[in-house]
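Second opinion, please. Please look over this fold, written as tokens:

===
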Amino acid sequence: MRAACFIAVIVLGHILRRTGFFKEEDFHVLSKIVLKITLPAAIISNVSGSKIDPSLLVICLLGFGGGVLYMTLLYLLNLHSPKEKRAFEVLNISGYNIGTFTMPFAQSFLGPAGMLATSLFDTGNSFVCLGGSYSIAP
């Protein structure tokens, strides 16, 4: 039932966009609300008071390692491609987009422990997405 509710919200958003309820200029306002208010509030409310066991920090390394693995693979697969294509592939492969898609499911199905693990994975991956891929891309 929870998954069906999430899918219904996504479908409703798509229908509202197609019918003209949401315009192109609404995207910036809605994305700011989600990324700057809703997402941090969900993380804080689920992680506050949780004890972070040092062994959980390995999850950060998994997020970092996954991004590095994808960047390396795409770089090697595009060695003989033009620089622009290779840079495009390396820059766009490393992100998992956890905040907008995975965290609502983790919060709903797994509770605070799932949110903590998801946030730690996203922390490791953010090092790759927010700088690492830019330093590697030709």
User: Anything to note?
Assistant: The CA atoms of residues 33 and 39 lie 9 Å apart. The radius of gyration is 18 Å. The chain is about 80% helix and 0% strand.
